[in-house]
Amino acid sequence: MTLTADFAAVPAGDAVSAFERDYAARRRRARRTWAIGSTLFFIAFLASAWFGDFFRVTQVTLPDGSRDWRWIIPAGLPRLGEYIVQTFPTLRWDSLGADFAEWFWRWRTWLRLLIETILIAFMATTFGVIGGFLLAFPAARNLSPNRAVLWVCRRYLEIARTVPELVWALIFVFCFSVGPMAGVMAVGLHATGALGKLYSEAVENIDMKPLEGVKASGGGWFDQIRYGAVPQVLPNVISYTLLRFEINVRSSSIIGYVGAGGLGQEIRTAMSFQEYTDLSALFVIIFVTVVVIDYASEKLRHRIIGMGDRT
Which of 153, 187, 219, 299 has its CA 20 to 30 A from that of 52? Predict the structure, then answer.
């Protein structure tokens, strides 16, 4: 009696022993790989912590006036708490309305800049989706026409997403002066690189059989993409796009720090004049906006992919 065709000439007992030896060898290799990987990760973690000054000590002044040496993290955490406390406004129940009015005293200006921030993010996401979607297919290894096109598209996407939005914003502010246009171009270019990578990875994971069917029917490269690839990657494209729009809203609220429009200018002003309560008000505005966008994006995505009846 034999177990498999590979052990046709081997008795069942010997086949089981060979299987057990092979299984034990695989287990040993897996444990060795896990041990090496864990060691390398631990070394990288310690090196990163060392270069990040996590192990640095600093001299602190104690309440009694004496000085002591402490690790930087436990010494700095109380200061972080003090900073956060300073950003909270004074709210009293008997004058809650007046306190809120004082907290959001520039709400008209902030609302206008918030709308500007959202519009910057929307336009930037639109440009990012168009650029990323068009470059995703030639940047995918399984669909790129040739190696030269693949190399050029991938390098372009890498450059676009490697340079931070703030750096792009500085470049475009220098070219086109201050204003929302520089913000749209900066965030849109970075979004093109990020979305192009995500889209291309989704394309590389598709099933190639539908494309082979289109090709066998006489379809060209564009026909294969249109009828074989796009229907498969569309759900991922929608998810990545909505996520990127949420990210772009946050990015658009920061790039104004260098004059590219949006709430960033107000954040810079509040930090420069140490208006801590204004900072907390701006944070609340951005937080509520992101929550609303996230909720709306989730509902929209579920509606598009057919989950609306199950939520």
Answer: 187
Assign 67 to helix, strand or coil.
strand
Reported pTM: 0.77
For the stretch 211-216, contacts whose Cβ atoms lie closer than 8 Å and that sit 24 or more positions apart, written own/partner, are 211/143
**pLDDT digits 0-9 by tens, 179-223:** 889 999 999 999 999 999 999 999 999 988 888 898 888 888 888
Residue 90 CA to residue 39 CA, distance in Å, equals: 50
Residue 206 carries which DSSP code? S
CA atoms within 13 A on the CB side of 185: 18
Helical H runs in the chain?
A: 12-51, 72-87, 96-103, 107-136, 147-162, 165-176, 180-204, 209-216, 221-224, 230-255, 264-272, 276-305
Spatial separation of the C-alpha atoms in residues 31 and 44, rounded to whole Å:
20
Model confidence at 140, in pLDDT bands (50, 70, 90)? very high
Q: Name the nearest CA neighbour of 278 among 121, 120, 110.
A: 110
Nearest CA-CA partner of 186 in 207, 169, 199 = 169
Identify the three-state secondary structure at position 70: strand
CA distances from 9 to 12, 15, 20, 180, 209 (A): 9, 10, 18, 77, 39
Q: In whole angstroms, what is the distance from residue 73 CA to residue 104 CA?
A: 33
At 84 the three-state DSSP class reads helix
Closest-CA residue to 225 (of 191, 241, 202) = 202
Average pLDDT estimate for 134-152: 92
Report the distance separating Cα 228 and Cα 218, nearest Å. 13
Decide: 7 and 14 in contact? Cβ < 8 Å.
yes
